[in-house]
Amino acid sequence: MGASSAFLRDLLEQMPLILTGLLNTLQLAALVSISGLLLGIVVFYLTLNKSPVVRYITNAYISFFIGMPLIVLLFLMYYGLPQWDIRLSPFTVAFIGFTFNVAAYNAAYLTTAYNGLDKTQLEAASAQGFNRLQIFQWITLPQVLRLSIPALTNQVISNLKDSSVAFLIQYTEFFARVQELAASNFQFFKAYLLAALVYLALVSIIVLLARMIERRYFIPA
C-alpha cells in the first residue's frame, strides 16, 4: 500500500476525531471572541473613568496581558496553579486565558478608535443632560465599535489561529487531532498541509463575513 493510500486510510479512520477537534476549535474561538469583546468593552469603559487610580489599574491590565505571551499565560494557569491546589480543566484554562488576553487587545483597539472621535458631540450630549453611562452606551460605544470593525475582525482571525496552541495544555482541538494523525503514519507534511488548508478555508470565511459587515457598518476614519 502506497504512502498516499495509507494516509488517506488513516485520515478516514480518524475523521470523526478530527471533526470533533475542529468543532472544539470553533467553539473555543467563537466563545473567546465573544467573551473577549464583552470584557474588552468593560475594560475600555474603565479607561474613561475619571479616577486616575482606576485608569492606571486598567491601563496596567492592558499592558500586562498584551505584553504577556499567551502560551506563557496558559502554562502558568495549567501547570503552575496546581502547585497551589487550583486545578482547572484544559478548556477552562484556555477560555479564561484567551479571554483576558483578547480583552486587552480589544480594549486597546476601542481606545484607539475613541481617540479619533470628535469630542464635541460628547460635550454636547453632556450639556443636554446625558450622564456618563448614557453617553458611553448611546454615543461613544456604537461609534468606536463601528470604527474598530477591521481591527476586531482581525482579532477574531487571530483567535482562530491562536487556538492551535491550546493543544499544549492538553485541550483536544483540531491541531491536536492532526498531530495524532501525523504520528500514526509519519506523513507529517501531508497532515500539516491538511491543517493549513483547513485553517485557510476558515480564515477566508471570516474575511468574507468581515467584509460584508464592514460594507454595512464601517465608518471611514
Q: Helicity range of the residues?
A: over 70%
Low-confidence stretches: none
The H-and-E topology, N to C, reads as HHHHHHHHH
Mean pLDDT: 89
CATH topology name: MetI-like fold
Q: Compute the gyration radius: what is it?
A: 21 Å
Outline: elongated
Number of domains: 1
Describe this structure as you would to a colleague.
α3 (70-80) packs antiparallel against α4 and α4 packs across α6. The chain is an all-alpha fold. The mean pLDDT is 89. The radius of gyration is 21 Å and the shape is elongated. It has a single domain, classed as Orthogonal Bundle (MetI-like fold). The protein has nine helices and no strands.
Keywords:
221 residues, mainly alpha, MetI-like fold, 9 helices, elongated, membrane, ArtM/GltK/GlnP/TcyL/YhdX-like, cell membrane, Amino acid ABC transporter permease, AA_ABC_transptr_permease_3TM
Topology:
Elements: H1 3-47, H2 52-67, H3 70-80, H4 90-115, H5 119-127, H6 132-147, H7 149-162, H8 174-185, H9 188-217
Helix pairs in contact: 1-2, 1-4, 1-7, 1-8, 2-4, 3-4, 4-6, 4-7, 5-6, 7-9, 8-9
Summarize the structure.
The protein is mainly α and 221 residues long. Helices cover 81% and strands 0% of the residues. The protein has one domain (3-217): MetI-like (MetI-like fold).
